[in-house]
Design goal:
CATH superfamily of the largest domain: GAF domain
Distance between the termini: 37 Å
Strand content: 15-25%
CATH class of the largest domain: Alpha Beta
CATH topology of the largest domain: Beta-Lactamase
Order of helices and strands: HHHHEEEHEEEH
Shape: elongated
Number of helices: 6
Structural class: alpha+beta
Mean pLDDT: 80
Length: 256
Amino acid sequence: MAENARLRRALAASHAGARPIPAEAAQSAKVQEVERELAHARAQVAALAAAPRSAGADERERIARLEKDLADTQRRFAELEEQNNNLANLYVASYQLHSTLDFKEVIAIVMEIVTNLVGAEVFCLMLVDGKTGELNVITAEGMTHRPTAKIPLGDGIIGRAAKTGEAYYRGPEEVGEVDFFHPLAAIPLKIKEHVIGMISVMRLFPQKEGFSSVDYELFKLLAGHAATAVFSAKLYSESERKLSTIQSFLDLLTTS
């Protein structure tokens, strides 16, 4: 709840005209630097292209080298532009996660982030049962039936990731079928060092070849922010139910 309040204050400060977060400022500086390099390289190539056709071998070699540098700079610019867009998406995702205390809405937002930003086609969200210490599937995407298997902490790939708090990503050297018990990725949802749940990804969309560096950053965000949002919403829902039960009991006593 305290983390929720802190994030809401930070969001309010940003809407009030606060300075951009350091990550955004650093990313913007990188983009500006590459833009300057790109403009300089284009100017050099244009100047050399306008030179007489009788240019010697050295000059042609210099032109080829500058064209290669220009292509590399354009590639770097495209990568940084994509990272800048993804950073904005991460900020929006963080805001969405803390925009409500309704448990079902928070779960739906987490699922939407994994689908739209990560590009996962088949995955599920699990939470740790406080009484049994087992992982139960709360909701799943892309599956015909929601898995009913309960996974003890420390058991299998998912259980071990939940017990250690370390994310698992399937390596290229690993063989065998990818399924519920052998996922592509298993990401613990943690509040500090306490794991409250897991996101398990079994399949990505066909157009996505694999996880990118931005995906790993997004998983880090989900590990903390989604855990806080889910935990806060769950506590709020439980307190609301208890309050409603107590109120009903009090109403029963006053009317009898």
